[in-house]
Specification:
The structure holds two protein chains of two kinds. Chain A has two domains: about 160 residues, Rossmann fold (3-Layer(aba) Sandwich); about 130 residues, Rossmann fold (3-Layer(aba) Sandwich), CATH 3.40.50.920. Chain A has 14 helices and 14 strands. By secondary structure, chain B is an alpha/beta fold. Chain B has a single domain, classed as Thiamin diphosphate (ThDP)-binding fold, Pyr/PP domains (Rossmann fold), CATH 3.40.50.970. The longest helix of chain B has 25 residues. The two termini of chain B are about 35 Å apart. The chains are: A alpha/beta, B alpha/beta. The interface between A and B is medium-sized, with 30 and 33 residues.
Chain lengths: ~300, ~280
């Protein structure tokens, strides 16, 4: 098993775009952390430091995009929200193709503590018209999706994670990823576990555990939260009849919220949401935090059993 | 193009034409806000002489090709001065007289605040203060990356200077030595609720920009010769960003609106319109 962090995939994805002279990288003093510095080292002339000024960075990106450039702006997920209204009014509203990456998403971020653990970003950006929202689960998928953004003509927010987790894809399977299309990683007829980010590996472990007690789960990497792959969810509603969502994010408004909204409007079915239950995190090791806050693979297993019982 | 047409900026014939353009714009500003029974006449009237000079004599823009990538950019950061923008865009051939009647109407080309998605000739979707200078930096960096000599002009309000993002952008423009970025501050001394002096004092505006490393000049923002000369001065600064603090009168040209906080965001009634048009005849 290879361990990798999705933020490295963002840096590798930018490196995959060096041939595109319209790609510009913007930083707010966290390029070492978000991994945009990989691009800076190769192409300092196309990388701009905006200092610790996220609001300014968002509108500089918008101005560049209005003139035909493809800006990729990154900082910590939590600090992108310092420029939320700038993103809303300056980027999403005029539909300018600015690609924002927020690294260090979720409580798995760990010892930095609750100030750095963004738990509402997926919900916040999902609420903006014109915005696409992604949260890849490993480095290879993050790299592949970042490269696809260079030809995406509307704005996007991509959340990456700080810490290494098991790699899910190989180069070939990652290359076939499409924005807005979830990946079925494992098929079973009893329950569909829809997951994103660092929780995808947990979902796969939970599916193994369920299988040993005779329960077969489908596991989906829903790397794109918006636009949601509704076709896939409808198919799984027929095939599995109940759902679990798992995300390192508030259970309010993120992946769980998106799936709940769609199911309630189409085929109301049992849904259990695994995630941060409307509270802030604390310092600690990422894995310790997931266990303490009810987001371990065992928590996904028991949520799956509850969903099946509610059928 | 790239610089002011080379004749004497104090040529009175030339200035007179621009003064006349500004007068016609002032009439449209009061008519638009009266028709919509809403909008922001005060900050449009304070800015309109500068707009008349920029659009009449300096900006390389073409109403037949409003999206030309090589056009100069004009970023109206104080987006509530939309009646002023629409009036000058009409004078410049981007909008018809009928377009002006759509101001603040459902589906109208002329939205309440200037919007690049709705109006030909508008380069920035404003309405939330403090963002236009950053956007202008992006446009100016793009020109530099393109190897183009096109220029980005930005207009800020003085109340707007209370937004922290303005100063984030002020630092960045100097750090990146953005010499193709030119700024006007419409120093009309009134913001939404009251006088700037009462809401949040901003003291010596020129000293602040100077302290951030900008080239600074102060002018009377209603003296057309001073405005034209300030534009020439802005064009002469190429090693970094430059700002003109234009001292203006909110509501300029309409006696009962002048220096009156009430007309930041209030339209004239029928009687007031008649008086305003008489004064602007």
């Amino acid at each position: 098993m290879t361990l990798a962090a999705s933020r490295d995939g963002y840096g590798n994805g930018l490196m995959g775009l060096v041939h595109d002279e319209k790609v510009i990288v913007l930083e707010a003093d966290l390029g070492k952390s978000t991994k945009s510095q990989m691009f800076r080292q190769a192409h300092p002339e196309r990388t701009f430091s905006l200092g610790i000024s996220e609001q300014n960075m968002m509108l500089v990106a918008a101005g560049l995009a209005s003139c035909g450039y493809k800006p990729f702006a990154s900082t910590f997920a939590i600090f992108t929200q310092r420029g939320f209204e700038q993103i809303r009014n300056g980027i999403a509203r005029p539909n300018l193709p600015v690609h924002i990456c927020g690294s260090h998403g979720g409580i798995h971020t760990g010892t930095d503590g609750s100030s750095a653990q963004s738990i509402a970003d997926l919900a916040i950006y999902r609420s903006l018209p014109n915005m696409s929202v992604m949260h890849p689960c490993d480095d290879l998928s993050a790299e592949a999706l970042t490269i696809k953004l260079a030809n995406y003509d509307s704005p996007s927010y991509t959340r990456t994670a700080r810490n290494k987790t098991p790699r899910i894809y190989d180069s070939e399977s990652a290359a076939s990823l499409q924005i807005g299309k979830g990946t079925v990683l494992r098929s079973g007829k009893d329950v569909a576990i829809i997951s994103c980010g660092v929780m995808v590996a947990k979902a796969l472990t939970a599916a193994d555990n369920l299988s040993s007690s005779g329960i077969e789960a489908t596991v989906v990497d829903m790397h794109t939260i918006k636009p949601l792959d509704e076709e896939l969810i409808s198919r799984l509603a027929e095939e599995c009849g109940c759902f679990v969502t798992s995300e390192d994010h508030s259970i309010i408004g993120g992946l769980g919220g998106a799936v709940a909204e769609y199911l309630s409007a189409t085929t109301p079915l049992p849904l259990e949401r695994v995630g941060v239950k409307d509270h802030y995190g604390e310092s600690g090791d990422g894995e310790e935090l997931l266990s303490k806050y009810g987001m371990s693979s065992d928590d996904i297993t028991s949520a799956s059993q509850r969903a099946i019982e509610r059928k | 193009m790239g610089s002011l047409v080379e004749d004497n900026p104090s040529n009175s014939d030339s200035s007179d034409l621009l003064i006349e353009t500004a007068r016609r714009c002032r009439r449209e500003i009061v008519k638009m806000t009266h028709r919509a029974a809403a909008g922001h006449p005060g900050g449009s009237l304070s800015a309109i002489d500068i707009l008349a000079a920029l659009y009449g004599r300096r900006l390389n823009v073409d109403p037949q090709n409003p999206d030309d990538p090589e056009r100069d950019r004009f970023i109206m950061s104080k987006g509530h001065a939309s009646p002023g923008m629409y009036a000058i865009l009409h004078e410049s051939g981007f909008l018809s007289k009928e377009d002006l009647t759509s101001f603040r109407k459902l589906g109208g080309v002329c939205q309440g605040h200037v919007d690049m998605k709705w109006t030909p000739g508008v380069d920035f979707s404003a309405g939330s203060l403090g963002m236009g200078l950053s956007f202008g930096i992006g446009c100016a960096l793009a020109a530099r990356l393109d190897g183009s000599d096109r220029t980005t002009f930005v207009m800020l309000g003085d109340g707007e200077l209370q937004e922290g993002q303005i100063w984030e952008a002020a630092i960045a423009a100097v750090h990146h030595e953005i010499g193709n970025l030119k700024v006007f501050v419409d120093r009309n001394r009134i913001q939404n609720d009251d006088f700037v002096e009462k809401q949040m004092r901003i003291f010596d505006v020129a000293a602040k920009w100077h302290g951030f490393g900008w080239a600074v000049r102060e002018i009377d923002g209603h003296d057309m010769d001073e405005i034209l000369s300030a534009i020439q001065w802005l064009d002469s600064i190429t090693d970094g960003p430059a700002v003109v603090i234009a001292h203006t009168v909110k509501g300029k040209g309409v006696s009962f609106m002048e220096n009156n906080p009430k007309f930041h965001g209030a339209a004239p009634n029928d009687e007031q319109l008649a008086q305003a048009l008489e004064e602007l005849a």
